[in-house]
Amino acid sequence: MYISSLENKKIKEYIKLKQKKYRDSYNKFIIEGEHLVEEALNSGFLLDVLVLDTYDYQIDFEKTYVTKEILKSLSDLDNHSLVIGICKKIDLTPSSQNKILILDGIQDPGNLGTIIRTSKAFGIDMIFLSEDTVDLYNSKVIRATQGIIFYLPIKRCDIIHEIKLIKHKGITIYGTDVINGIDIRNISNYQKDKFCIIMGNEGNGLRYQTKELVDKNLYINMDSTVESLNVSIATSIILYEFTRR
Amino acid sequence: MYISSLENKKIKEYIKLKQKKYRDSYNKFIIEGEHLVEEALNSGFLLDVLVLDTYDYQIDFEKTYVTKEILKSLSDLDNHSLVIGICKKIDLTPSSQNKILILDGIQDPGNLGTIIRTSKAFGIDMIFLSEDTVDLYNSKVIRATQGIIFYLPIKRCDIIHEIKLIKHKGITIYGTDVINGIDIRNISNYQKDKFCIIMGNEGNGLRYQTKELVDKNLYINMDSTVESLNVSIATSIILYEFTRR
């Protein structure tokens, strides 16, 4: 198929997907670049591929050839990609739920995407996002995940309710706090098989109601002149330590 | 002092500092927000403070009151701060040079800033930046450092020459590579007192000439389905491990 008009019905719908409200109502989102499109295809979430009409892109999927203007309208990069994909929203079932990460109000898309990428690297089974966490299908989040978004179960939910369910299963809930915290180097191996770690908002940390549900706090030993680490860095070091034996 | 005109000579000079070439020729840079201004004052690099004319900002430094329009012209945020500082470029002398980080072509400002912040947290004495690394005085870099930029010696230089000097002092040069790499958990304590770690560009890693000078490669043990970590995450985990005893 070849589409050259920005007024084409399908293209008009796709452009709307740059806004969260339309991603939510159509249950679709945009991805950019060949790597992400291939990951979407492999994981079964790809619905459509738009390719620049002059570009010979090899992929085992029906392509829609479009103009430069159309790709530019769909992209949020200064230099748009030659290949853009449309996906259905991801719905993965976790194979187990022993290693859980909960994000309580993360606002920066780069942080969320990076945390997702690292979580998969360090064996997290499932991520829960609080309702006020930045949209998972924001283009910057997706880019920062480097395609890992298609392989790790992630659910937006009422985290307070979810934490209570997890506690009920006997899984320890960890927050982060230097005061009365446990140095992460002192977490024993048997504690590393089942855990739920909650990481909070960039500026404010965990909200009060979440803090109330925490069983133990963790801290990362570091130079006393540095007040804190970026949340994606802190999360990554904690998750790394929980895989370290 | 009170300035209301964007045509004021000083303001015109300050606005130019949003561009790298003027930061380089005037040897100055812009910072935004009270926290950074206070860190700049404490560390002795603050030259001027511009404060919104209606804002009663308490700081032990001569203030220049300005209009909303002037602050907006100096800011690169959607919502400009009420306080903007002008600093002289930072020139710190390292107290020792046993724990060295070299960045070879990092392009993303957020990554550079975050790496600087984490480096201070994990005891790095000195950072060297390759000539093609993103500008240290880019506003996004400074924001991501959270003020740590004023306290950690950082030098842009010919890193090939620098690595040769460091090698000559008998310090081990570490790169990163899964193939033939050492799992970072196996670095022994005596190796953690003196080291030089080189981290490469987001897409391409170390350039060939840098790789040639590496003594040992490091890798981070992780899930085999994940190809790599974000460079600021990988750097942070490696530096964390080098402080871990």
Overall description:
Chain A is an alpha/beta fold and 245 residues long. Chain A has two domains: 2-88, 60s Ribosomal Protein L30, Chain: A; 99-243, Alpha/beta knot (3-Layer(aba) Sandwich). Helix content of chain A is 32%, strand content 22%. The first copy, chain A, contains nine helices and twelve strands. Chain A has helices spanning 9-16, 20-26, 34-43, 68-74, 109-121, 139-145, 159-168, 208-211, 231-243, and strands at residues 2-3, 28-32, 46-52, 63-66, 83-88, 99-104, 126-130, 154-157, 173-176, 182-183, 195-200, 216-219. A seven-stranded parallel β-sheet of chain A has the order 8-7-6-11-9-12-10. In chain A, strands 1-4-3-5-2 form a five-stranded mixed β-sheet. In chain A, strand 7 (126-130), helix 6 and strand 8 (154-157) form a beta-alpha-beta unit. In chain A, helix 5 (109-121) packs parallel to helix 6 and helix 5 packs parallel to helix 9. The model of chain A has no long low-confidence stretch (mean pLDDT 96). Chains A and B meet through helix 5 and helix 9 of A and helix 5 and helix 9 of B.
